Amino acid sequence: MSVSIDKQDRVAVVTIDNPPVNASSQAVRAGLLEAVAATEADADIDAVVLACAGRTFVAGADVREFDKPPVEPHLPDVIAAIESASKPWVAAIHGTALGGGLELAMGCHARIADAKARMGLPEVTLGLVPGAGGTVRLPRLVTAELALKMIAGGKPISAKAALEARLIDAIATGDLLEEAVALAVEQAAPRRTLGKAVVGAINADAFDKTASGLRRKARGQASIGAAIDAVERGLHLPADAALAEERATFLALKASDQARALRHIFFAERATLADPRAKQAPRPVTRIGVIGGGTMGAGIASACLMRGFHVMLIERDEASLEAGANRVRGTLDSSAKRGLLPDLDAVVARFGTATDYAALADADLVVEAVFEDMEVKKQVFAKLDTVTKPDAILATNTSYLDVNAIAAVLSDPSRAIGLHFFSPAHIMKLLEIVLPNAVSEDVVATAAKLSKSLGKIGVLSGVCDGFIGNRIMSAYRSEADRLLIDGATPEQVDTAMRDYGFPIGVFEMQDMAGLDIAWAMRKRRLAEGKITGPYIRMADRLCEMGRFGRKTGAGWYDYSDAGTQPSEVVMSIIAEERQAMGAEGSSFADADVMPRILGAMTREAEAVLAEGIARSADDIDVVMVNGYSFPRWKGGPMFAARINGG
Ligand code: T1G
Question: pTM to 2 decimals?
Answer without folding.
Answer: 0.94
